[in-house]
Amino acid sequence: MNPALERVLQEVHANDLEIRHRAVGQIGLLLEKNTAISGTVDSYKDLLDDDLFTLKLDVSEQQRLVAELCNLIASDKMTIGMLWALGKADRTISIRPLFEIIRNQSRTFGEEALWQTLVTLDNVIILSGTAAKLQEQNRLIDEYGIIDWLYGLEHLRDPRVPEKILGLKAAIRDSKGYKYVE
Asked: Which segments of 34-110 does DSSP mark as H helices, in order?
């Protein structure tokens, strides 16, 4: 693996919270840069370390970063920024790990982490694509009980939550081709 990638993966495990936060930010930006439209890539030059900016991640490297983020989210080193970074990965790589986090870890999250999970879910849900991609997404939504999970968040006091939940339910409904009546 690329030495720059190894370095940032070591830093994301650091006990020093400042180093860990910075590494999470670098991972999120790197994942986002690798899914960005090619004309916008230069905008990351001032944000990413030079050795990370020049990287073009392959699928296995993206999967490794997502796996490391998920392992950390499931640990005592979890930060809300890790949920943000997960939402920057390619949707086909991050959807199942995100759904695993929702099913297995989200019960222990505070309101800010739940909010960031909603934002990440919003980034990961696809609204269009091939029939096969939409069918797979919808199968996973059903398998992981994502709609039930959304209903379970309606008690949160954060004023941003109801609108975000409605938007996600509408996106899921539209991706399934359902006519929805409240």
From this structure: 50-53, 59-73, 80-86, 91-104
Task: Report how far residue 31's alpha carbon sits from residue 56's, in angstroms, rounded to the nearest whole number.
Answer: 9
Is residue 169 included in any domain, yes or no? yes
pTM for this one?
A: 0.89
Question: Which of these ranges, 23-32, 55-64, 126-135, has the smallest mean pLDDT?
Answer: 126-135
Q: Could you report the per-residue pLDDT of 35-77, keeping only the tens digit for each?
A: 876 567 788 999 999 999 999 999 999 999 999 999 999 998 9
* Neighbour tally for 32: CB within 10 Å: 20
What pLDDT score does 37 carry? Answer: 64
Under DSSP, the state recorded for 16 is S
Show the domain range for 46. Answer: 3-176
Domains of the chain: total: 1
CA proximity to 20, closest of 63, 90, 69, 92: 69
Task: Determine phi and psi for 146, rounding to 5 degrees.
Answer: -65, -40
CATH of the domain at 98: 1.25.10
Q: Scan for tokens 């910075």, then name that residue.
A: 22
